[in-house]
Amino acid sequence: MAAKSVSIAGPGDTQLAAGQQTTLGQVRPEAVIAVRHMDDLGTNILTQSLLPGQMAEPDHDKREVFRDYPGDFDTFTLSDVTHKLHVFISYNWAMPQWLKFLALAFHFNHKAASVAAALAYILAVLLVMLHAKAHEGVDDLYFRSHVGTGVCVVTYWLFLLCWHDVKALCFRRGKRVFLDRCCIHQTDEELKQQGIENLDIFLQLSDQMLVVYSELYTKKLWTMYELATFLPKRGPSRLVVLPTFLIRCTILAVPTVALHCIWVQLLLVEDVQQPIEELFPDSRLAILLLDLPLLLVVTWAFRRWAKEERQMRENVRTFHYGDSHCLKETDRSMVYSNIARYMRDTKAVSADAPDEDALMAFNELVKTEVPIAVTKSLGGWGIPLRYLFVILMPLMTNIVDYLAVAPLLYPEPLPMAMYATGLLIFATSSLVCATFLAPWLSWGCGPRSFHDVIGAGYFTLGPFWLTKILLQIQG
User: Fold this and answer.
1) At a CB cut-off of 8 Å and minimum separation 6, what does 52 contact?
2) Which runs of consecutive H residues, i.e. helices, occur in 268-331?
3) Measuring CA to CA, which residue among 470, 371, 400, 327 is closest to residue 121?
4) Is residue 305 part of a domain?
5) What is the full DSSP assignment across 6-70?
6) DSSP letter (8 states) at residue 207
7) β-strands 48-50, 32-34: how paired?
8) Which of 373-382, 413-422, 456-465 has the lowest mean pLDDT?
């Protein structure tokens, strides 16, 4: 029997008809694909397979798609009809719910949160500069100047966690995404099989693939099938990898860097400086001692990620379809059949090639395409810049806070220039040290590299002394 073309239903369509022409490819004659709409994160998404004439109407609040619903609840009803997908979400079901949510928040809300934080920070700094007075005490000026950093960090995290709800209140739809538990029927075995068999159609409909990566991702047959099917058609530039361990590291590192900024602020207070100077030639040397535990914690976390990234690459290099895990072993033969059909359709093997040859070709496809795509997505250092931006945000804004009050602390041009120069040198050395921390941790995981990173952190000692010398010269 000749296969019929797929008909894609748009949001306003009320009928799905088999046999209408489309450029998306061909599937089995009994299957008609309808891609469903869902707002990113909270309000919903997705797609589903329907038999001709069927239409599922959402009848449930479209929220919390990752939570554990009662066994009799049909998550399929959380989806809606659309003609196009923005993002195909590929993830491992075993991950905690909160981690999945944060991963999607980092992907969908990061830009909005960054813009909101920048605007809030600029406004806070301007207000501080307008209301600060030159005759205020130095300690008061220092504390007041750091309002901007607090506002910036709080604004970023509020928008990161809540921006999708703000858009929903404004009746703005989010991106249309594919989530398997909503787009593929989980209780009706016939509809479930149709959805699985036509998974490659969903992938072709998607503009981008979002991989929520965990240590089990490269060991799962389902996820590797999704990834390897997407890459040849859409290319590595449309792949985004979100490592969940890096999200954990970011959550740990942000308060750590903020704690460093608080310590610096406290050690600049005159009442605190006096007892510290009895122990150290310069009170700022105490910062290095206090930062040692923080440096150890951050270094340990990113070393763990470096090792996990290497393990991920090793898992891909040694991938074999027979060794991969399947949540339900009864689905394995179905996935094998899908893989073999896909490899024949893409002419990776001849049309009459046996399944074994098609599966072996799939192995080579994974080993060839996946490493290139993962490297492109993660960047040459193995840590996407967005994570470094979030981690270093308190440090960067803290330096600008000091610069903002420089005219009030040192009204004369020369002293102010010396003060600003010292701060900029310190900021540059700190950021360079933190930036080079990433490649060191990514490419060298041995004990020697561990000690090198810790030692490199103490190169900030030079700018401390240089700042002091510059201020003494102008005095």
Assistant:
1) 16, 17, 18, 30, 32
2) 270-279, 285-317
3) 400
4) no
5) P----TT-----TT---SS-B--TT-EEEB----TTTT----EEE-TT--PPP-S----TTS---
6) E
7) antiparallel
8) 456-465
In sequence order, what E strands does 321-447 have? Answer: none
Residue 439 domain-assigned? yes
SS3 (DSSP) at 325:
strand
CA 393, CA 388: separation in Å to the nearest integer?
8
CA distance 377 to 114: 20
User: 210 in helix, strand or coil?
Assistant: strand
Q: What is the mean pLDDT of the chain?
A: 71
Residue 254 in tokens: 């942000």
Q: Which of 386, 465, 350, 384 is nearest to 111 (CA)?
A: 386
Strand pairing partners for 209?
Answer: 88, 239
What's the CA gap between 47 and 147, in Å, rounded? 45
List the domain range (segments joined by +) for residue 468: 410-475
Buried b (16+ CB within 10 A) or exposed e, 239-270: bbbbbbbbbebbeebbebbbebbebbbbbbee
In a domain, 431, yes or no: yes
The secondary structure element, H or E, covering residue 206 is strand 206-213
- Of the pLDDT bands very low, low, confident and very high (cuts 50, 70, 90), residue 111 is very high
The position carrying tokens 């689905």 is 331
CB 98 within 8 A of CB 26: no
pTM: 0.72
Number of other residues whose CB lies within 10 A of the CB of residue 210:
25
Q: Which two tokens stand for residue 241?
A: 């990898």
Nearest to 88 by CA among 219, 215, 241, 205: 205
Q: Any long-range contacts for 91-97 (C-beta under 8 Å, 24+ apart)?
A: 91/211, 91/212, 91/214, 91/217, 91/223, 92/212, 92/214, 92/216, 92/217, 92/220, 92/223, 93/181, 93/327, 94/214, 94/216, 95/212, 95/214, 95/244, 97/66, 97/67, 97/68
Domain membership of residue 426 (yes or no) is: yes
Torsion angle defined by CA atoms of residues 365, 206, 4 and 195, in that order, rounded to the nearest 10 degrees: 80
Residue tagged 């290095």 (tokens): 288
Digit-coded pLDDT (tens) for 224-236: 888 888 888 788 8
Count how many domains the chain has: 1
Q: Write the CA distances from 143 to 13, 128, 338, 399, 402, integer angstroms.
A: 59, 11, 62, 13, 10
The amino acid that residue 97 corresponds to is: Q
If you search the block for the tokens 């309002």, which residue do you land on?
147
pLDDT digits (tens, 9 = 90+) for 338-366: 888 888 888 888 988 898 999 999 999 89
